[in-house]
Design goal:
single chain, alpha/beta, 2-enoyl-CoA Hydratase, Chain A, domain 1, Lyase 2-enoyl-coa Hydratase, Chain  A, domain 2, 2 domains, 6-stranded mixed sheet, 47% helix, binds ligand T3D
């Protein structure tokens, strides 16, 4: 008698698309959404699919349960066939970060709980971050004899300045949500019960804006991180040429003249 095929493993990343927003939820709550290899592949695929989906104009990244993401699943690392760390970064972590930064749609991190290790890095790779009062952030790499990765050493000095970045990275100092707000790492802190609604409200605002202008703004901000003023000015001018040629720009002007809200279509 033929045996029936093994059931497919449960997805560890959930995606819901509604009202032009893709909500991507890390969904291994019993392990604080620690990242396994299949989960990393699912997360990258989810981001790339949302980036390519014409029905999506903004993305929310969040976690299920009491954590945002506890970083690498340390139990998986103990498995005998665990790949070398550098390979894991090059082949699975780094492509997620690149997909998030190359995605031309804005990504709102709804940080619902602890963001540790590469989970902190994922939060940093979002365009905007809002946090529940119960959220916290810790690099945690030093505690296990590792180097902050998945973009943490790139994002943190740029977002917080060199001194604070060094304190977090070298001392593994944890941050509460209130600390993160004070440092400018998150845009707002809300009661945990309000986080999903607040993230949705921000994503809805973004989804109603002119998509090309948002994409070009994201590109200009990223580029400015590492380019001289002269280059930033040139890039702004080139992107503005493009934005100025869109139907959405014409619609924005028309709406202003007619004293009504604009209806941006992405054209
Ligand atoms: O491939 C590579 O390794 C290279 C890439 C590395 C990137 C990285 O992310 S390295 C950093 C990895 N992450 C960590 O070191 C964080 C480890 N976790 C913690 O420090 C703490 O769990 C937290 C600060 C995140 C939360 O603490 P707490 O007290 O709220 O929860 P807990 O009791 O420690 O954890 C609850 C459960 O989640 C527990 O499982 P159990 O005992 O109830 O069955 C714990 O084992 C599990 N868990 C938490 N973090 C991880 C994890 N399981 C696997 N991997 C984890 N990272």
């Amino acid at each position: 008698m033929e045996s029936s095929p093994a059931p497919a493993p449960a997805p560890t990343v959930r995606v819901e698309v509604a009202d032009a927003i893709a909500t991507i939820t890390l969904a291994r709550p019993a392990a604080l959404n620690a990242l396994t290899i299949p989960m990393k592949l699912e997360l990258r695929a989810a981001i790339e699919a949302a980036a390519a989906d014409p029905a999506v104009r903004a993305i929310v990244l969040t976690g299920e349960g009491r954590a945002f993401c506890a970083g690498q699943d340390l139990k998986e690392r103990l498995e005998p066939d665990a790949p070398p760390l550098g390979e894991e970064l090059r082949e699975r972590y780094n492509p997620i970060v690149v997909a998030m930064r190359q995605c031309w749609k804005p990504i709102v991190g709804a940080i619902n709980g602890v963001a540790a290790g590469a989970g902190f890095s994922l939060a940093l790779a979002c365009d905007l971050r809002i946090a529940a009062e119960t959220a916290s952030f810790v690099l945690a790499f030093g505690r296990i004899g590792l180097v902050p990765d998945s973009g943490a050493t790139w994002f943190l000095p740029r977002l917080l300045g060199a001194a604070k970045a060094a304190e977090l990275a070298l001392l593994d100092e944890p941050l509460t949500a209130a600390d993160a707000f004070r440092l400018g790492l998150v845009s707002r802190v809300v009661p945990a019960a309000d986080l999903a609604a607040e993230a949705r409200a921000i994503a809805l605002r973004l989804a109603a804006m002119a998509p090309y202008a948002l994409a070009a703004t994201k590109e200009a901000l990223d580029s400015a991180f590492h380019s001289p003023l002269r280059h930033a000015l040139d890039l702004e001018a080139a992107l503005q040429d493009e934005a100025g040629g869109t139907a959405d720009h014409a619609e924005g002007i028309a709406a202003f003249m007619e004293k009504r809200p604009p209806r941006f279509t992405g054209e």
